[in-house]
Amino acid sequence: MADTILVTGGAGYIGSHTTLALLEAGHEVVVLDNLCNSSLESLRRVERICGKAPRFVQGDIRDRAVLDALFAAHNIDAVLHFAGLKSVGESVSQPLEYYENNVAGSVILAQAMAAAGVFQLVFSSSATVYGEPAQMPISEDVPTGTPTNPYGRSKLMVEELLQDLADSDPRWRIALLRYFNPVGAHTSGLIGEDPNGIPNNLLPYVSQVAIGTLKQVSVFGADYPTVDGTGVRDYIHVLDLADGHLKALQAISQRSGVSIWNLGTGVGYSVLQMIRAFEQASGRPVPYQVVDRRSGDIAECWADPTKAAQELGWKAERGLAQMMADTWRWQSGNPQGYAQ
């Protein structure tokens, strides 16, 4: 009998790719999404790709009545929790929104899970929980630091409350997945990243400049102690990330308590290297302008992915060229995202 997995935020960027991977692996999937930062079209496209559709519930993780009804209607075995707000800049200007959605929402979800007797949870965390780490690469042994913005703090708060929860009740089996920088799109070009308004992340911004929607990329600082002075990050293909969730889900069915894994490639690329790689993939120029550093940005950040390789049998398989080619296929085929 296939497991039934609840995916919160399953119509979003990472959620939709993971929903697809779950369906392809034979799971039944129920998606809960309030569509505040996502589109139902992503799930229609998932069905086009794999011939199977998840069941969809429109609702909010902060709404306990919606959660209770969902758990009563579906025999859920485990939860993949992606639902949350994710813009670093917006979190600085609207911290209460972030704490209410990301922290309070996770509390209500965990309460509803416990009431329904569901104790397996994979949480979408972030490398931002490490703050400004003293060493590179970042392994899971590096202590969590002081995140430089409310978004990162909200992720760390959820990690800590889930740790407390697992300490209080041995039935909980929880994975904390600390992502680095997800990029790319499904190879079909049918699903990809569709940010609301001006993108907050580098690659969707670069691709919108290449397609002509935006004029130029702002490069925040070219005086960092890096290969070319621009910030270095660990970019991971969203399909590798989705695969990591399936491996984590499998692993926690055999492990109690909290398990933590970094999901990254172990390789850092600078902003300028990313722009050049995208120009190569798209055959289009990407004009950019160097501007002042952004407050809260760190010079470099990349993962040590050894623990995930050893414990999950997972590693990132897709390199920079594929990340760029898949991003361009999605962007050029869907210049307006899902709002065609």
Describe this protein's structure:
The chain is α/β, with parallel strands linked by helices and 340 residues long. The chain has eleven helices and 14 strands. The protein has a seven-stranded parallel β-sheet with strand order 3-2-1-4-5-6-11, with helices on both faces. The chain has a three-stranded mixed β-sheet with strand order 12-9-14. The chain has a two-stranded parallel sheet with strand order 7-10. Helices cover 40% and strands 18% of the residues.
Observed structural traits:
340 residues; seven-stranded parallel β-sheet; 18% strand; globular
The helix content, as a percent range, equals 40-55%
Low-pLDDT ranges: none
Count of DSSP H/I helices: 11
Mind describing the biggest β-sheet? 7 strands, parallel
Structural class: alpha/beta
Round the mean pLDDT to the nearest integer and report it. Answer: 96
The side-by-side strand order for the widest beta sheet comes to 3-2-1-4-5-6-11
The shape, in one word, is: globular
Query: How many β strands by DSSP?
Result: 14
Strand content: 15-25%
Strand and helix order:
EHEHEHEHHEHEEHEEEHEEHEEHH
Rg over alpha carbons: 19 Å
Note the gap between the termini. Answer: 38 Å
